[in-house]
Write a structure and sequence with these properties.
The complex is a heterodimer of chains A (397) and B (290). Chain A has 14 helices and 14 strands. Chain A is α/β, with parallel strands linked by helices and 397 residues long. Chain A folds into two domains: 37-158 and 295-366, 3-Layer(aba) Sandwich (Rossmann fold), CATH 3.40.50; 161-289 and 376-388, Response regulator (Rossmann fold, 3-Layer(aba) Sandwich), CATH 3.40.50. Chain B has one domain (2-278): ABC transporter involved in vitamin B12 uptake, BtuC (Orthogonal Bundle). Helix content of chain B is 72%, strand content 4%. Chain B contains eleven helices and four strands, in the order ααααβββααααβααα. In chain B, α1 runs antiparallel to α10 and α2 packs antiparallel against α3. The relative contact order of chain B is 0.20. Classes of the chains: A alpha/beta (397), B mainly alpha (290). The interface between A and B is large, with 38 and 36 residues. Chain B: This is High-affinity branched-chain amino acid transport system permease protein LivH. Chain B: One of its GO terms (molecular function) is transmembrane transporter activity.
C-alpha cells in the first residue's frame, strides 16, 4: 500500500518537475529564435596562424558591436560564438562541429587557412549551415561550391588565381623581371598560388629557377636564400605567412640579398611592423592583397580609425575582411526577412552589397566578384598601384 | 660551387650548435632518470619568453635579458624538479612519458594564456651581418658558435672530473648502489634537471634574435628535432650528442639547399633510421647499456 502511494507521488512529482523544466525551456527556444542571430566564427586562435585569428576575431567583434549598437538586424541582435581551428584541418572540423552541435549556430564564418576551409565545407553542407568564408584564397573552395557542388559554401574573398595573375603581370611588365625563385608556404594556399603563377608566367616570358616550400613554424632560411642568391633570380615569388615574412626579410639582409632580390606575392609585406623589421629587404616589394589600411574610401578609412581606437593597433587585411563579411551577412539576413537559413542563402545569391572596395555580387559558384589591390613598398610605405578584378574561368564540369 | 658547399656546412654547424645545447640537457636528464623529457623544448620556449619579456616590458638590454631568461627558467625548473622529476626516480618508464608530456601541455598553455597565442617580435640581439672568410653571417650566429664550444668543453670536464658529474654518471649506471654508498639520488636528479633546463633556455635566448618570432608553441618543434639527436648520440652520452647534433645540422642544411626546403624536417628521422641500421646502439656506445 505504501508502495503504490509513493509510486503515485513519484509519478506526480516527476510530471510536475518535467513540466517545470520544459515550459521555460520552450519559452527560451522561442525567444532565441526571435531575439538573436547565432553566428559562429572559426579562426586560428592559437598556433602559427594565431595572429590571423586574433585579427579576424576583432574585425568580426567590431562589426557585431556596430550592428547591435545600431539596434541589430531588424531588431535581432547578433550573438558571436568563436571556435579555435589552430590552423589545422582536424581542429577546424571539430571546431565547426562544436559550433553547429553545441552552440547551435545558424551561420559560420571561417577559416583563414584554405586547407581548413576545404575540410569545413562538407561539415557545413551536411548540417545545412551556411559557411561564409572571408579569408581563404585557394580557388578550389569555390570551384567546388554553388553549381560545383557545395550549396552552403559562399566566399567573400578574391582567389589566388586572380592574385597570381595580377602579381605576375605587374612584376614582368612594370618591373621587367624575368627570373624568379619560389619560396612559399607548404599549404593549399602557398602551393595553389604558385600553380596559378606557373600557368600565367610563360605569357610574360618569366621562368622559375628554383622552387621551395617552407613548413609553418620554419625559422632557418639561410640555406635556401643562399641558393636563391647564387641562382641569379631577380625576384622571390612568395605566398607566405605574415609571421614568417619578417624572419625571411631579416635573413635576406644577413645574406646580402636586400636591395638585390625583390619579394613579390603576398604575406603582409605592407604592415608597419613588417617593414620596420627589415626595411632594406622590403623596399620595392610587390604585394597583391584583398584590402590594406591605406585603401582610399571613406568607409574603409572610418573602419581603420574605429578599429585603431578600439584595439590600440591598426587593422590588417583579416580584420577588415571579417568585419566586412559580418556586415554582408547582416544585409543578407535583412533582405531574407529573418534568420531562416534557406532564405538567407537565397538572399546571398542575389545580393548587391556595397563594400568599401566596390559592389559585391556572387557568381554561380558562390564566389564574390572582388578586386585584388596591388601595392608596392616605396620609401618604407605601401603605395597603391591599382585594383584589378578578373572574372574566373571555371574548369568544365 | 665549392664555396656554396662550405657556406652550407657553416650554416649547418650554426644550426647544429643550437640543437647540441638543447639536446645535451635532454640526454643528461635521460641518463639520470631513464625518462625522455618531452617537455624539454618548453624550457627553450620559457627562456626565450623570459628574454623577450625583459627586452619588451622591462626595457633591459639583450645581455641582461639572457640572464633574465635563463634565471626565470631555472626557477620554473626548480619547481617542476621538486614536484615532479624527483618523484620519477625508480618509477616505470610510462610514468615519465606521461608526466613530461603533461608538463609540456601545462607550460605551453600557461604561456599562451598569459601572453596570448600570437607571435611576438624579438627585437634584441646582434643581427647586423659580419663578413667572415667571405661568408656573411649575423653577429648573433657567431655568438652562438662561440658559446657552444666552451659549454661543451665545460660539460665534458664536469661529467668526467667533478663530484657532481661523477655522481651523475653513477646514478645513470645504478641507482641502488648509489643509495648504498651515500649519493643523494634525488639531489643529483634535481641538479641535472635544472642544468638541462637552463641549457635549453640559454639556447632559446641565443637563437631568439635570428629566429625573430617568439610564441607559445615554439618548443614542440625543438623537442622533436632533439629526439633523433639524443638517440643517435647514444642516450646519456654528452660527446655523442654533440657530434650527432652537428651531423643533423649539416645534413639539414645540405638537404634544404640541394633537395628542397620542404624536406628539411624529414632529415632528422631519416638520418636516425640510416644510423640505427648501421649502429643500433648509437654512434658512440659499443653496446647496449640499458
Amino acid at each position: 500500500m505504501t508502495h503504490t502511494l509513493s509510486r503515485r507521488a513519484l509519478c506526480i512529482s516527476t510530471a510536475i518537475l518535467s513540466l517545470a523544466v520544459t515550459v521555460p525551456g520552450l519559452c527560451g527556444v522561442a525567444q532565441a529564435a526571435d531575439g538573436t542571430i547565432k553566428l559562429g566564427l572559426v579562426a586560428p586562435m592559437s598556433g602559427p596562424n594565431a595572429r590571423y585569428g586574433a585579427f579576424s576575431m576583432r574585425g568580426a567583434e567590431l562589426a557585431v558591436k556596430e550592428i547591435n549598437d545600431a539596434g541589430g538586424v531588424d531588431g535581432q541582435k547578433i550573438e558571436l560564438y568563436s571556435a579555435d581551428s589552430q590552423g589545422t584541418p582536424v581542429e577546424g572540423v571539430s571546431a565547426t562541429r562544436r559550433l553547429i552541435d553545441e552552440d547551435e549556430v545558424d551561420f559560420v564564418i571561417g577559416d583563414v587557412s584554405s586547407s581548413v576551409t576545404l575540410a569545413m565545407q562538407p561539415v557545413a553542407e551536411d548540417a545545412g549551415v551556411l559557411l561564409l568564408n572571408a579569408a581563404s584564397s585557394n580557388p578550389k573552395i569555390t570551384y567546388a561550391a554553388g553549381v560545383g557542388g557545395f550549396k552552403w559554401t559562399y566566399r567573400n574573398y578574391p582567389t589566388d588565381e586572380n592574385r597570381a595573375f595580377v602579381v605576375a603581370k605587374y612584376a614582368a611588365e612594370q618591373r621587367g623581371f624575368t627570373k624568379f625563385a619560389v619560396l612559399s608556404v607548404d599549404s593549399d594556399y602557398g602551393r595553389s598560388a604558385i600553380e596559378f603563377t606557373k600557368k600565367y608566367l610563360p605569357e610574360f616570358k618569366g621562368e622559375i629557377l628554383s622552387e621551395d616550400y617552407y613548413k609553418e613554424g620554419e625559422v632557418d632560411f639561410r640555406s635556401v636564400l643562399a641558393k636563391i642568391r647564387d641562382s641569379g633570380a631577380q625576384a622571390i615569388i612568395m605566398y607566405g605567412l605574415a609571421d614568417t615574412t619578417p624572419i625571411i626579410a631579416r635573413q635576406m639582409i644577413e645574406l646580402g640579398l636586400a636591395g638585390k632580390v625583390t619579394l613579390i606575392g603576398n604575406g603582409e609585406f605592407n604592415t608597419e611592423k613588417t617593414i620596420k623589421s627589415a626595411p632594406t629587404a622590403l623596399e620595392g616589394a610587390v604585394e597583391a592583397a584583398a584590402w590594406l589600411p591605406a585603401w582610399d574610401s571613406p568607409e574603409s578609412k572610418a573602419f581603420v580609425e574605429k578599429f585603431t581606437t578600439t584595439y590600440d593597433e591598426a587593422p590588417n587585411n583579416h580584420a577588415y575582411v571579417h568585419w566586412d563579411t559580418v556586415r554582408l551577412l547582416a544585409q543578407a539576413i535583412h533582405e531574407a526577412g529573418g534568420n531562416d537559413r534557406e532564405k538567407v542563402r537565397e538572399a546571398l545569391s542575389k545580393i548587391k552589397y556595397k563594400s568599401p572596395v566596390g559592389e559585391v555580387t556572387f557568381d554561380d559558384h558562390n564566389q564574390a566578384r572582388l578586386p585584388m589591390i596591388l601595392l608596392q613598398i616605396e620609401n618604407g610605405k605601401p603605395s597603391i598601384k591599382g585594383a584589378y578584378t578578373a572574372e574566373i574561368q571555371y574548369p568544365a564540369q | 660551387m665549392f664555396s656554396t658547399i662550405i657556406e652550407q656546412i657553416v650554416n649547418g654547424i650554426v644550426t647544429g650548435s643550437v640543437y647540441a645545447i638543447v639536446a645535451v640537457g635532454m640526454t643528461m636528464i635521460f641518463g639520470v632518470l631513464r625518462a625522455i623529457n618531452f617537455a624539454h623544448g618548453e624550457y627553450y620556449m620559457l627562456g626565450t619568453f623570459g628574454a623577450w619579456f625583459a627586452v619588451d616590458y622591462l626595457g633591459l638590454s639583450y645581455e641582461a635579458s639572457i640572464i633574465v631568461g635563463v634565471l626565470s627558467t631555472i626557477v620554473v625548473a626548480y619547481v617542476v624538479g621538486r614536484l615532479v622529476m624527483q618523484r620519477m626516480v625508480g618509477a616505470p618508464a610510462e610514468a615519465g612519458v606521461l608526466a613530461t608530456l603533461g608538463i609540456a601541455l601545462v607550460l605551453q598553455n600557461t604561456v599562451i594564456l598569459v601572453f596570448g597565442g600570437g607571435y611576438k617580435f624579438f627585437s634584441g640581439g646582434y643581427i647586423e651581418p659580419l663578413s667572415i672568410l667571405g661568408f656573411s653571417l649575423a653577429g648573433q650566429r657567431i655568438l652562438i658558435l662561440v658559446v657552444c664550444l666552451p659549454v661543451f668543453i665545460g660539460l665534458e670536464f664536469m661529467v668526467t672530473y667533478s663530484r657532481m658529474g661523477k655522481s651523475m654518471r653513477a646514478v645513470s649506471q645504478n641507482v641502488e648502489c648509489c643509495e648504498v654508498v651515500g649519493i643523494d639520488v634525488p639531489k643529483v636528479v634535481l641538479h641535472t634537471f635544472i642544468l638541462g633546463a637552463a641549457l635549453a633556455a640559454l639556447s632559446g635566448v641565443l637563437t631568439a634574435p635570428v629566429n625573430v618570432s617568439v610564441y607559445g608553441g615554439m618548443g614542440e618543434l625543438i623537442t622533436f628535432k632533439t629526439l633523433p639527436i639524443i638517440i643517435m648520440g647514444g642516450l646519456g652520452n654528452v660527446r655523442g650528442t654533440f657530434v650527432a647534433a652537428m651531423i643533423l645540422g649539416i645534413a639539414e642544411s645540405l638537404v634544404a639547399t640541394y633537395v628542397g626546403l620542404q624536406f628539411r624536417d624529414t632529415v632528422g628521422f631519416a638520418t636516425l633510421i640510416l644510423m640505427l641500421m648501421w649502429r643500433p646502439y648509437g654512434l658512440f656506445s659499443t653496446q647496449a647499456r640499458f
